[in-house]
Design goal:
heterodimer; A: mainly alpha; MetI-like fold; about 80% helix; B: alpha+beta; Rossmann fold; OB fold (Dihydrolipoamide Acetyltransferase, E2P); 2 domains; six-stranded mixed sheet; five-stranded antiparallel sheet; 9 helices; 20 strands; about 25% helix; about 35% strand
Chain lengths: ~260, ~375
């Protein structure tokens, strides 16, 4: 085998440090916890309930808001309109602002004092302290991932393919569902996985909109605050494990759909 | 069949039109023009991929520029194929048929028939990725033709193919056309155009500058591009002036249009009919060039000049460009002692000149 050149060696060294930085805390978490501790945590109904809540609210947020986000991504990829750059900047905004600030911002439209919150209250329901509020908080901070990924995917599909489909008699809707979406599918799925993952692990915005019912990140924080590191650690391990399993499953589905 | 009236479209700094054109049913119409002439834009307007700024398009008497892409009945084979990569060959050909409300058995028959005609029956279950350039083009043609469009637009269908493959696809196009289909084929390659065209139009800088039978265009070019395409190097727009009693005898003076301070040429009256603007082509093979001082010669159309450029000898003949106030191309046997900057004497016999009047009326419409 040929000796790697200097550049490759330097990059392997630097890249290895970055990788170590990512792996070390998780490895530390695993090494410092015992198996009985983790088994007990899995049996803890409160932990299981919070993880389940995190999973289904993240899925719900991804599904509900994805229905609107994917068409928006297509519009941004295909159409030119005044203010397009501003719209793009607004989409990226949740990536820049502190998530606690995002939660506060959400309160202004979801609390009982807002029109939406009041309407919900009149219908006998509240966003605050409710899974629907959790979904809103998750979606607010994670939507940019889906929109940007899907947009890149749509941009990579030659527009002439859509036009050719229409030239063969397909309606624009049919062309989208039979040509554009299948060809951009990988990017859309990648966006869905990212949005789901980001939503599931959201803490800052969720804790402001809904401390209860507790999602897994809020529960881990609460255990850390109330009982210390020893009690928070097993819950964190279980949650990380569940996240990994969920990601692997989604990736496998995405690969199958290729 | 297809009639285009006053079509115009502005796309950035480029302006297409105005274009007026008529393509007959069953015709193999070729639009020839250099890159950037607006050929693809024109086809996109016909197919409905873009909307014109003004003008009308009629197909079989029906106005189609106001119809959506799906309803135009015009098949458009884009440059570089647009086969759907996630479908098989069969899936691609079926794509348009699926939308049509015809019995499944009839669809199957149509696919089998067109696959046979385009020679891709053995490829039907293959994926698009594994196909060669020629096979892809055949599939793209089959996908279009299975829908029986009233008119098929072909945008540079032979681009990127080697010579053998080009011959192959040209043969197929010719065969498909011989069954009564109407084709509009766009290309920048004169040889390709001549090979298939039953009628030809030249497009330059967004305008159709000449149109007619290929043989007509070759013998009577009306623009620099058309002359180049016909292999004519000495092409001039001239003004045949009224005969002046003294000095010219039975000859008329000829001035080069748009050029100042250039010598007047003369032509025998028998060679030109009437006066006014005309085109003149000068056979470069009959232009004589000798070193100045080698012989002493005077007479009609004899000029002193300077060699401006030399081209290497091919089959014993070399090309010279001589500046005699304007540039004249000459084909000489061997380069002898000619060098760039050599002073030379240039002349040509009367029979080397051909004069004809502008016949293509579109020019007038364009400038309206």
């Amino acid at each position: 085998m040929r000796h790697p050149d200097l550049l490759t060696l330097v990059f392997i060294g630097l890249g290895g440090l970055a990788l170590l930085f990512l792996v070390a805390p998780i490895a530390g978490l695993l090494l410092q916890s015992s198996v009985p501790e983790i088994v007990d945590t899995i049996r803890d109904k409160e932990v299981c309930g919070s993880i389940f809540l995190s999973l289904w609210t993240a899925m719900g947020a991804t599904f509900l808001f994805g229905i609107c986000a994917v068409p928006l991504a297509w519009i941004l990829a295909r159409k030119e309109f005044p203010g397009k750059k501003i719209v793009s900047a607004v989409i990226d905004l949740p990536l820049m602002i502190p998530h606690s600030a995002a939660g506060i911002a959400l309160l202004t439209i979801l609390s009982r004092r807002s029109i939406l919150g009041q309407a919900a209250h009149d219908a006998g329901f509240s966003f605050i302290g409710n899974p629907s509020g959790i979904m809103a908080a998750m979606a607010f901070v994670s939507l940019p991932f889906l929109i940007n990924s899907a947009r890149t995917g749509f941009e990579a599909v030659d527009e002439r393919l859509e036009k050719s489909a229409m030239n063969l008699g397909a309606s624009s809707i049919r062309a989208f569902f039979t040509i554009t979406l299948p060809l951009a599918w990988r990017a859309v799925i990648a966006g869905i996985v990212l949005m789901f993952g980001r939503g599931m692990s959201e803490f800052g915005a969720v804790i402001i909109v809904a401390y209860h019912p507790m999602t897994a990140p809020v529960l881990i924080y609460e255990r850390f605050g109330a009982y210390g590191l020893r009690y928070a650690r097993p819950a964190a391990i279980v949650f990380i494990g569940i996240c990994l399993v969920a990601f692997v499953i989604l990736r496998v589905i995405a690969e199958r759909n290729r | 069949m297809l009639r285009v009236e006053g079509l115009k479209k502005k796309a950035g700094a480029f302006c297409l039109g105005r274009i007026d054109l008529f393509v007959k049913k069953g015709e193999y119409f070729v639009l020839l023009g250099p890159s950037g002439a607006g050929k693809t834009l024109f086809l996109e307007l016909l197919a409905g991929f873009r909307q014109p700024d003004s003008g009308k398009i009629f197909l079989s008497g029906r106005r189609i520029d106001i119809l959506p892409i799906q309803k135009r009945q015009i098949g458009y084979l884009c440059q570089g194929d647009t086969l759907f990569p996630h479908l098989t060959v069969r899936g691609n050909i079926y794509y348009g048929l699926k939308i049509r409300k015809i019995p499944q058995r009839q669809k199957d028959e149509k696919v089998a028939e067109i696959a046979e005609e385009t020679g891709i029956s053995h490829l039907l279950d293959r994926k698009i990725d594994g196909l060669s350039g020629g096979e892809r083009q055949r599939v793209a043609l089959a996908r279009m033709l299975v829908l029986e469009p009233a008119c098929l637009l072909l945008d540079e269908p032979l681009t990127g193919m080697d010579q053998i493959l080009k011959q192959d696809i040209l043969g197929l196009l010719f065969e498909l056309h011989s069954k009564g289909r109407t084709f509009i084929h766009v290309t920048h390659d004169p040889q390709e155009a001549i090979a298939v065209a039953s009628r030809l139009a030249l497009m330059e800088r967004g305008l159709v500058t000449q149109e007619g039978q290929p043989i007509e265009l070759l013998s009577h070019p009306e623009t620099e591009f058309a002359a180049r395409f016909a292999g004519i190097r000495n092409f001039f727009s001239v003004e045949v002036l009224p005969k002046v009693a003294s000095g010219y005898g039975e000859r008329v003076p000829v001035a080069l249009s748009g050029m100042k301070d250039v010598p007047l040429l003369t032509a025998p009256c028998s060679l030109v009919s009437g006066t006014g603007p005309m085109f003149m082509v000068l056979d470069q093979g009959q232009v004589e060039v000798v070193d100045a001082g080698q012989i002493d010669r005077s007479g009609e159309n004899t000029f002193e000049g300077v060699v401006k450029a030399l081209t290497p000898a091919y089959r014993g003949h070399a090309g010279l460009i001589v500046d005699i106030g304007f540039d004249i191309c000459a084909s000489v046997r061997g380069l002898n002692s000619f060098r760039i900057g050599s002073k030379v004497l240039v002349w040509w016999p009367d029979k080397a000149m051909k004069f004809y009047k502008k016949a293509f009326s579109r020019q007038k419409k364009v400038t309206e």
